[in-house]
Amino acid sequence: MKNSALYYGVGPLLYCPANKESIADSLIKETFGRHFSLALCLEDTIGDGFVSDAENILAHSLQKLQTALEKHSFFLPKIFVRVRNAGQMKRVLNLSGSAGELIHGFIAPKFSTENVNLYLEELSRLQSGRKQPLYLMPILENPAMADLRFRYEFLYSLKETLDDCEDNILNIRVGGNDLCHVFGLRRSSYESIHKIGPISSIFSDIITVFGQNYVISGPVWEYYSGEHWEEGLKQELKEDRLNGFVGKTVIHPNQIETVRNAYLVNKKDYEDACAILNWNPSSHSLVHGNVEGARMNEYNTHSHWAQKILYLSEAYGVSDS
Predict the structure, then answer these.
(1) CATH class, 5-262 region
(2) pTM over 0.70
(3) CB atoms within 10 A of CB 224
């Protein structure tokens, strides 16, 4: 389990095409609030013939943000760049110049055993000379995971390789829509992706392999307006949390607060977590009812849960209820 709130605090990760020229002004004006991270996408939101233009626009946006920060303060989210391949990471940093320090890390789509070493080697090279650490967030969306004969070997092979630079893997992310595409499936605005058996099975295996050592973010929810969209998102977030996901990819600002609120720590959970972690492990009894007498707290059973609750409270806050 990760040992810092840093890994739990990516939160709602707002996706934006890297060629959106208004993004810097939106951030400077705090149009999206103060409770999100930002992914500038150079991959599937950009046409193949426009990648170079998008890279230059991205670099200009970062430079504009850097200049604005020198004049006045505003909330700057953690900024990540979703690249097409490992080599693009260096190109983006070179184009951005000193403003490249504003990049918190890179998102690696279609992550696989074929490209994992390319990403990790490039990440290691790019760390040299930087003031701030550089993180990687791989996306597990490979259609080959649908094949049970391949899935376990694929996942454990990836994990063994990633473990060599575990501290720089900020999150593992999952491509829910890409995996649904394999089966020709799509959930409606009132249906959770966790109800889709084949997808739920893949998610369960990802959590099983990576969940003890890494923070794993929930899949994108593709609805942001219309009937049932918010109720459906809230329900899927409940199931995300129950199954071990932390945070979520969002594709519209409407979704940000709903995701953020879902990860506010319940006051009762926070109080129980504090009690468990303040337990004297040398005590004659390591089990006791909680303050309300409503459920059992057990040091040996609940200490990992309690530590995660405190990290979440540091990253998102504690609700009054």
Answers:
(1) alpha beta
(2) yes
(3) 16
Residues 67 and 234: their CA atoms lie apart, in Å, by 38
pLDDT in tens, the chain (321 residues): 788 999 999 999 999 999 999 999 999 999 999 999 999 999 999 999 999 999 999 999 999 999 999 999 999 999 999 999 999 999 999 999 999 999 999 999 999 999 999 999 999 999 988 888 999 999 999 999 999 999 999 999 999 999 999 999 999 999 999 999 999 999 999 999 999 999 999 999 999 999 999 999 999 999 999 999 999 999 999 999 999 999 999 999 999 999 999 999 999 999 999 999 988 766 667 677 676 767 888 888 999 999 999 999 999 999 987
User: Interhelix angle for 116-127 vs 87-96, to 10°?
Assistant: 30
Strand, helix or coil for residue 105: strand
d(CA 88, CA 177): 24
Question: Among residues 161, 160, 158, 189, which one has the least CA distance to residue 174?
Answer: 158
DSSP 8-state secondary structure symbol assigned to residue 12 = E
- Here the tokens at position 237 are 């977030």
Listed by start position, the domains of the chain span 5-262, 268-316
Q: What is the DSSP letter of 169?
A: B
What are phi and psi for residue 291, nearest 5 degrees? -55, -40
Residues linked to residue 80 through DSSP beta bridges, in sequence order: 39, 105
